[in-house]
Amino acid sequence: MIDPISLVIGGALVGGGWLAGRVSARRTKSEQQSPAVCGCGHDLALHDREAGHCHAENYRKLGNGLKGWARCNCQRYTGPTPLEEFFAPTPLPPSQ
What we know:
The chain has helices spanning 4-31, 83-87, and strands at 57-61, 67-71. The relative contact order is 0.12. It is an alpha+beta fold. The protein is elongated and about 80 Å long. It folds into two domains: 1-32; 37-78, no CATH class. The protein has two helices and two strands. It is 34% helix and 10% strand.
């Protein structure tokens, strides 16, 4: 037969696990570090380090009234400076 006490205990364990998962998931989302982003909305990986312009493409309205992919207009990375460039210059390739 079915034991009602075991069903209640099992339901309480499942509900407690679900509740603990919901609470811990919210806490970890707020602790995640967001990537360094430029003013255009793209991160440092999409910007040319020497020339500075952005290589990303945005889906936006073009001049003829149609929508399509167009190059990002960002000319220089304006986000936070990466630590490795702040403390020491990049060793490769050699500049001489």
